[in-house]
Task: inverse folding
């Protein structure tokens, strides 16, 4: 089960879309690192401090590579030019 469902289904996608739209020609790796840093070391501790999320055997550093990959996949998907037509 995800750690904090409202973050996973609303705030995270909106934050990723915001990062994708701001300076679209800027390095996606730097933006991914910035997104991962903010979400792992700022957002997660705040959510834990508010007692909305209780990390059990989980360190915030574990979230960093996951958030990085999520952003890079979203970036790759947003830059994809076309999709193949569906066969009937």
Result:
């Amino acid at each position: 089960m995800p750690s904090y469902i409202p973050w996973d289904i609303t705030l995270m996608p909106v934050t990723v879309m915001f990062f994708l739209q701001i300076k679209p020609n800027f390095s996606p790796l730097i933006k991914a690192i910035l997104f991962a840093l903010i979400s792992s070391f700022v957002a997660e501790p705040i959510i834990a401090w508010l007692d909305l999320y209780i990390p059990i055997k989980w360190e915030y550093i574990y979230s960093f590579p996951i958030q990085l990959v999520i952003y890079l996949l979203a970036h790759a998907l947003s830059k994809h030019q076309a999709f193949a037509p569906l066969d009937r």
User: Anything to note?
Assistant: The helical segments are 5-21, 28-49, 60-79. Residues 40 and 59 are 9 Å apart (CA to CA).
